Every structure is written in structure tokens, then in C-alpha cells.
Amino acid sequence: MSQARLGEEGRRSPAPRARWNRGRFGPPWEAFWYIVPALVVLSAFTLYPVFGNLWLSFYRYTFAGATFLGLAQYGALSRDPVFWLSLGNSLFWVVGTLVAQFAIGYVLAVLIEDHLPVGVQVFRTLFFLPMVITPTVIALVFNALLSPDYGGVYGVWLHVLPGVPFPTIFGNPNVATPAVIAVSVWQSTGFFMLLYVAGLSQIPQETREAAYLDGATTWGLNRYVYIPMLRPTHVTLLLLGTIQALQQFALIYLITDMGPANATQILGTYVFHQGFILNNLGYAAAVSIVLFVLSLVLVLVELKLAGGRFTIGGARVES
Amino acid sequence: MTRRRSWWAFVVLVVGAAVWLVPVIYMVNIALRTQEDAFVPSLLTLHPTWENFRVVLGQPSLPRYFFNSLVIATGTTVFTIAIGASAAYAFARMHVPGGRALFPLLLFQLFVPIAALLIPIAQLLKFLGLVNTYWGLIGPETAIGVPFALIVFRGAMDGFPDELEEAARIDGCTRFAILIRIVFPLVSPATLVVAINQFLYSWNEFFLALIILTRAGLKTLPLAPLVYQGDFVSNVGELFAILTLITIPAVVMYALLQRRFVEGLQGGGIKE
């Protein structure tokens, strides 16, 4: 992305460009052949499932067949305490992971790009490392690390705080959700760092020089130059981070198995729990619809607040 | 002095990275322990041994999981690139009737959690007879990857100079030939970003694999520890040797490609 593409005013509009190929070369419907494959996978695995869930949520499925229930499934949801717990936990996941990942990811990126004298590539790779590790491996390692009878952290605890009982972490309903969130933050912060690294590297050197000439401190440079200029990156991370939090499954399933007593259940895991363990397909579909609507509302609100513009890999997307 | 480099930052980051990587170091360390040491509560062992790796590498089923993961991850990466690049080409370089509405629609998947689509996807795959097949995973994973590919490829192709295409057209190239021979090779930084992203996503995908691959011979690496967990209850060292072996290929691949991945994310493409 060149400098001109960073600022809003620098954006080239496609209209005045010599579009020799627009409709003048081949038939006008030719473009569709290039889009059809994308439309097919989208229809099969995104559009159809949304409507499929809506349909399923009106029925109850048993071995005897399907019974039409209308909206009764949603009525049952509203009286289900586990559903409300899952909804609350989902929102907690969104807020918790976003706050931590934004803060740590940004600080790491600035430290690495602006202040580190040597080893920029090495540190970028080290902090990104958890992103490439399989969630199954992460879950087993953290369970072992925090195990109250043989874990590595327990070993350190014995030396530092002898005599003080080691706390139960993943088995304690009050701290299990924040603890799994922390594991997720550990895994995903590298992604936030990397996108900020990519964003920072596009801020031209002259901007930094000008800021320092004007007597800006490191704090001032970050607060009044970097943070406003990185706006497209903030928006991208806000959107992707929200969905990432809402679709967490592996870590919760593998570390706490949604327990103790549903304490770590979120909407995504509850869909699995109802649909694939208890076989309540219609009920699980109703939970899916709630999750779908929640994602849509959050993303639309975020887009609205952000002015509807974000960027990935030099591409700008407007809505 | 434009950037305020200091050794303080170095010290902070070294300490930070050391703490950040404790779980990884711990994993490798458990894998290097003797059976007696495995349950000793400590972060590091003083008696490392390769014994666990020797035992685990003799496991006949482990190469099978690697193979399954490789087939699925390679398959979905190829399809994601092909489908994403061709759709992006149409949006960037051709007149798409209704394109203003169609493009956001195609990005829609990016903002829907997979759990919200899971049950109909499972039913559809069952209906198509794709449960317990490679295609059963390649299909939905490709659908999940296409929107990201579409954005990245479009970003690279929007800024592509018209002159190159025009010259090719005068030389008698068809539109498809222009895409394959001229545009696609020139957007390779974007291709690399999509490839790394999609390959890593697929390599580590757990949720769909758990539901769609139930037959032992078809399972992918993320499911492997669950299979072994029962067999190695008494020997954590061997289980962690497997975890380490699963982790190595993705880490090595990423470490080798990370510089170009970051460059690609910065949008290094052909610009006018």
C-alpha cells in the first residue's frame, strides 16, 4: 500500500481510470464465469446454512419425525438459564479478548518496530508463534502447566509461596472463563501485533521526523500520530477480533469441556452441546440464529462507528 | 534520529518473550523427560532424554495424521487461491452487473462465526455423502477462506497497471490467459499471504474436523492428541513428544516465510 492509499483523501476513485476492459472486451456476462465458483461455495456453506437454521429452529426433531413448533423453541430459549449464561459469556469473550489483544498487540508492535535495536524479525516471529500452534496442543499444554499436582506453575508456586494452597483455575467456575480467555489472548495477540507491524511500516519516515522536530515525545507520537493514522488497522482488528471471540470453540471444549457446570459455555459451544451431544437439532438451530444475529448486530454497529472502512493487505473495503 | 532505539526495549522484549514462550518451552521440556521425571512439578528438567521421541516416531499411525492434514490443507489452499483470485479478477478488472451488491455479499462469511452455520453444514455434508471424506473438510474450509482471499487479491489487482493487460490483449491473449499468465504471476505477494493464512488455518482447524472426520484413518493432526491421550495416560512424556512433533512443521514453515508474509500484508504488489 503506497502512502497515497493510506489517507482517505488520497484514495483514487476508480472512475476516471482508463477502464478499457469494462464491457468492451467479451460479452458483459463474461465476468460471472469468474465469480460463479465463489458464489457456489458461498451459497452452499454460508447462505444455505443461515436459512437452514431458521427453518430447523421452527421444528423439533425426534426419531418419529419433525413436529412444527413455530417460535416455541425461542420461548424455551428465553427461559433457559444456560442460554443466558452463554450469551453473557460470549459478550465477555468479545470485550475481554479485544481489550487485551489491542493493548498488548499494539505495545509489542511499537516496541518492536520503533524501539528495538536488533532482532526485529526474531521477535516478530516469537510473539506470533502461538498463532501457528494447534489448539489441541495449546489446551493440553496449559492444562498440564496449571495442573494442581504436577504442573510447572505449581512447581514455581511451591518455591515462591510455600504453604499457600495452589488455586484451582480451570476447575473453578468463577475464574474458568477469564482463564480460558487469557489462553486465547496468549494465542491470538500475535495476530494483532502483526497487523500493527504492517500498519506502522506504512507510516512514512518523514511523518516521524516532522513529529520529533515539532518536539513530540514518544507518547505524543503514539497518541497523536500513530493511533489516528492506524485507524483502518484498528477497524480490521475490531471486526476480525469480534468474530474470532464469538467463534471460539476448540480451547473451551478442550480445556474445560464447557464446564464446570456450563460455567465456560458460550453461544458457539452451546450450539455444539445441544446439537451434537444432546441431539436437539431444532434447539441448537435456534441458538445458532441468536449467535448469527448477535454477530451481525455487533459487526454492523462497529462498522457504523468506524465509518464503514477497513483494510487487509493493502486492500480497502467499503460498505 | 527518527526512531528512538534503545537497549531498554531489547531487555523488555527479551523478558516478555521468555514469559510468553513458557508454555512452548514447557511442552518441549516435558517431551524430554524420563518417565519418573514426568510428574515432577517443575518448569524444567535436569535429565533430558530423547527416549520419548524415539518411541513416538515408531508409532505407525502418526504419519497417517500428517498425511491427512497435508492433503486437506493443500487442497483447501489451492481451491481458495483459485476461487478467490478468479472472483477478485472479475471484480477488479471487469464490469460485473450488480457488483456493488455482490461484493459485500461475498464477504459476508467473514463476519459470521462458523458455529452459527454448523448444523446445516453438517446436514448438507451428510446429504452429499461427504462425511468422513477429505472433500467434507476441503469444501467448508474453502468457503471460509474465500472472502479473505477475495479481499487480499482484489487489493493487489485494483492497483494493477492497465498497460500490461492492454499489451497482452493486443498480442491476442484471451481474458483467461491474461489472468493466468500475466496477472496471477504478478500478484504473488498476495498469493503468498492467502496461501500461508489458509494453510495454517486448515492445518490447525479443529471444530469442523471434530464433527466431520470421525473415522480413525481420516483424522487430521489437531484430532490426533485426543486419540493418543487415552493410550498415554501414564506416560505424559510421550504424549508431549507427539504434541511437539505436531507443532514443528507449522512453526518451521511460518518462521521461513514470515518476512514475506508481513511484506504481503503491507500490500506489496504491482502499483501504478
Broad shape of chain A = globular
* H/E topology pattern of chain B: HHHHHHHHHHHHH
| Overall pLDDT of chain B | 86
Biggest interface: chains and residue counts? A-B, 122 and 123 residues
What portion of residues of chain B belong to β-strands? under 5%
- Fraction of residues of chain A in helices? 55-70%
In angstroms, what separates the terminal alpha carbons of chain B? Answer: 32 Å
* Rg of chain B computed from alpha carbons, rounded to a whole number of angstroms: 23 Å
Give a short account of the largest sheet of chain A: 2 strands, antiparallel
> What string, H for helix and E for strand, traces the elements of chain A in order?
HEEHHHHHHHHHHHHEE
Relevant CATH superfamily of the domain at 63-225 and 248-265 in chain B: MetI-like
Average pLDDT number of chain A:
85
The CATH class designation of the domain at 63-225 and 248-265 in chain B is: Mainly Alpha
Query: How are strands sequenced across the largest beta sheet of chain A?
Result: 1-2
Total discrete domains of chain A: 1
Number of strands of chain B: 0
Helix content of chain B: 55-70%
Strand portion of chain A, in percent? 5-15%
Give your account of this protein's structure.
The complex is a heterodimer of chains A (319) and B (272). Chain A contains 13 helices and 4 strands. Chain A is mainly alpha-helical and 319 residues long. Chain A has a single domain, classed as MetI-like fold (Orthogonal Bundle), CATH 1.10.3720.10. In chain A, the strands form 2 sheets. Chain A has a two-stranded antiparallel ribbon. In chain A, helix 1 crosses helix 13, helix 3 packs antiparallel against helix 10 and helix 12 runs antiparallel to helix 13. Chain A is globular and about 75 Å long. The N terminus of chain A is likely disordered. Chain B is an all-alpha fold and 272 residues long. Chain B contains 13 helices and no strands. Chain B has a domain of 181 residues: MetI-like fold (Orthogonal Bundle), CATH 1.10.3720. At the A-B interface, helix 1, helix 3, helix 4, helix 5 and helix 6 of A face helix 1, helix 2, helix 4, helix 5 and helix 6 of B.
